[in-house]
Amino acid sequence: MRGSIIVPCYNEEAVIGITYDRIKNVITNISGVSFEIIFINDGSTDQTLNVLNVIAQRDKNVKILNFSRNFGHQPAVSAGIQFCSGDIAIIMDADLQDPPELIPEMIAIHLNEKANVVYAVRKRRKGESVWFKLSAKVFYKFINYLSDIPLPLDSGDFRLIDKRIMKEFKALKEKRKYVRGLIAFIGYKQVPLPYERDARFAGKTKYPFLKLWALAKNSLIYFTKKPLGMAVTTGFISILIGLVFIVYIFIRKYNNSIPIPGWASTAVLIVFSGGVQLLTIGVIGEYIGSMFEEIKGRPEYIISDIIEGAEEKR
C-alpha cells in the first residue's frame, strides 16, 4: 500500500524542519506502507521554501508544490489531494498541533474497520484562548443547524482519506472548496478518532479572526441555501411587524388616545426595515458573488514549480 502525507505550509520556517522529522520518524516504522510527503508552499514570504528545498534534496519521497502566490489553506489542501499518488492520504497542518504520531492509529482504523475516512476529533485544545474555543464551538453548531449535511463537531482537516474519497473529491467542480465539508458530503464510512490537540509549536496562527470568518461564510454559502430562506422569512416578519404597527397607530388615532410622536415612530420603522433590506440584499449578494467566482472559470490555485526529490518540474 502507498500513502501520501499532505502538509500545507505558509510561513512555517520555524517549525517545518521539525514537522518533517517527526513525520519521517513515524512513517519509517509503519510496515507495509510506502509513503510520499507532499508539502504545499502557499506563497510563503519567509524561508519556508528554502527549508523545504533542503529537505527535498536529501529525501526522494518528498514532493513540493510551490504556489505562485498565497491562495489559502483550503486550495493548498485541494492541490495536495489532486497531486498525491497514494492509496490513502493523511492531511495535516505544518504547525504540529496535529500530532504525526496519530498516523499509525488512523491507518489501523482504516484497515480494521474498513473506514473510508478517519477524522481526528479534538477532545482538548491546548494553547487556544477561551474566546477561540467558544467561537469554534458556536461555529460548528451553527453550521450544523443550517447545513443539509452534518459536519463533525471539533474536527478540522486532520484526517485520513482513501482512494475512493480522493477519486470523488477530484471529480468535484467547485473552485472555492471547503475540504472537510466536501468530504462529509461525499459520504461512505467515516470514523472519528478522538485526540488532544497540542499547542502550536512555533510561529503565529494562520487563521486569525478575519480568515476564520471568511471560512465560515464560505462554508455557509456552499453548503446550504437556508440563509436565502431565512432572508425571505425575515422579510415576511418585518412586513407583519409593519402591519401590526400601522393597525396600532390607527386604533390609537381613532380612539382619541394620546398622539404618537410621528418622527420617532417613522425613524424606528425606517431603521428596522432598512436593516432587514440590507441584510437580505447582503445574503443574496454573497450567493451571487459565489456564482460569479465559479463562472469566471479561474483556477483554484496556480503552481509555479513542482519539486520532486532533487528534480524540478515546471
**Main sheet summary:** 9 strands, mixed
Task: Look at the structure and name the CATH superfamily of the largest domain.
Answer: Spore Coat Polysaccharide Biosynthesis Protein SpsA, Chain A
Question: What is the mean predicted local confidence, pLDDT?
Answer: 80
- The CATH class name of the largest domain reads Alpha Beta
Count of domains: 2
Helical/strand content category:
alpha/beta
The count of β-strands is: 9
* Basic shape: elongated
Portion in helices: 40-55%
Q: What is the level-2 CATH architecture name of the largest domain?
A: Alpha-Beta Complex
Residues in β-strands, percent: 15-25%
Cα radius of gyration in angstroms: 25 Å
Order of helices and strands, N to C?
EHEHEHEHEHEHHEHHHEE
- Report the CATH topology name of the largest domain: Spore Coat Polysaccharide Biosynthesis Protein SpsA, Chain A
Distance between the termini: 28 Å
Describe this structure in words.
The chain has helices spanning 16-28, 48-58, 73-83, 103-112, 130-146, 163-171, 179-186, 209-223, 226-254, 262-295; strands at residues 2-9, 34-41, 62-67, 88-91, 117-125, 155-162, 190-197, 303-308, 311-313. It has ten helices and nine strands. Helix 9 (226-254) runs antiparallel to helix 10. It has two domains: 2-208 and 299-313, Spore Coat Polysaccharide Biosynthesis Protein SpsA, Chain A; 226-295. By secondary structure, the chain is of the alpha/beta class. A nine-stranded mixed beta sheet has the order 7-5-6-4-1-2-3-8-9, sandwiched between helices. Helix 2 (48-58) links the parallel strand 2 and strand 3 (62-67). The protein is elongated.
